[in-house]
Amino acid sequence: MTTLTAADAARAAITASGVEIRTLEEVADLEAVRRLYEQIWRTGAANPPITADLLRAMAKVGSYVSGAYDDGELVGACFGFFSAPERDALHSHIAGVLPRVRVRKVGYALKLHQRAWALERGAGAITWTYDPLIRRNAWFNLGKLAADVAEYLPDFYGPMDDDINRADPTDRILIRWPLLAPAVDAACAGTPRALDGAALRTHGAAVALEASAADGPIVRPVGRASYARTVLVGVPDDIEALREHDPALAGAWRGALREVLGGLLEDGGRVTGFDRNGWYIVERTTA
C-alpha cells in the first residue's frame, strides 16, 4: 500500500498536469465556470448545464467548486455537494475539461484535488454519474480512479439538449468512489486498476455484448444457466461520433447496453473493472 497522503497525491497530480487548481467562490470565477461548461457541452447560453448563481449558493453553504487554470485561463472545473446522511459522501455533479488539455491529465488532477478536499471534511466517499457508452470515461472512472459501479440508471436525467447527448436517452452509471480503499489509494499514486479482457476470455469468460464488423451491437445470450461466472460487456470505440453520423446505430447501442449491462447488475452481478480496450468486466454471483 502506498504511503502517499491524499493531499500529497493531489499535489503530485496537479504538478504533473501543469495547471493550478483552486476552490472558487467569487461570482466572476463562477460565471467563468458556467461559460466553460457551455463550451464543453456545446449547449449555448439559453440552456447552461449550471448557472453562476446556483454555484455561488453551493459554495456559500460549503459545497465543492474548483477550477483548473493554465497560465491564468480556466480549462477545467468540477463541483459537487454533500449527500445524505449528512456529509458522509460528496456527490460530484459535473466535471469537465477542455479537450486540448485532456492529454495532460487535468481531469485526473481535479478528481484527486476533490478527493483530498472531501477527506479533509470527513467524507468517506464521492459519488457521480457517467454515460456508460463513453469508453474513455469508463476507463477513467473504473481504471484510472478505481471507482466502483453502484447502479445502472435508465434515462436518469431525461432529455438533455446539448451536442454531447443529442437525442440519446440519458442512461447513466452511478459511481461510488470509496476514498480510502486500497485500490483507490494505489490508483491515486499512479497504479490504475487494470484488467485484461482478452486474458479473461481465454480463461472462460463469456462475451455478452460486442461490436459487429459494421460497428453495431451483437448481444449474445449468457443466461443464468451459462457456465461462465465472468462476463464481458463491450462498448463501441466512439459513441459520440456514432451519435453525430449514425444516430440509429447509436440508439441500438444504448438499448443493447441497457439490456445487457443493466440486466446483469439487476440480476446481482458486480462490475469489477474496465479493460481500456472496451470491455466491462462483470462477475456474477450465480452462473
UniProtKB/TrEMBL annotation:
Keywords: Acyltransferase, Transferase. Residues 19-165 form the N-acetyltransferase domain. The keyword Transferase applies. Its EC number is 2.3.1.-. SUPFAM superfamilies: Acyl-CoA N-acyltransferases (Nat). GO terms for molecular function: acyltransferase activity. It comes from the Bacteria. InterPro entries: Acyl_CoA_acyltransferase (IPR016181), GNAT_dom (IPR000182), GNAT_N_AcTrfase_prd (IPR038764). It is an enzyme of class 2 (transferase). PANTHER family: GCN5-RELATED N-ACETYLTRANSFERASE, N-ACETYLTRANSFERASE DOMAIN-CONTAINING PROTEIN. This is GNAT family N-acetyltransferase.
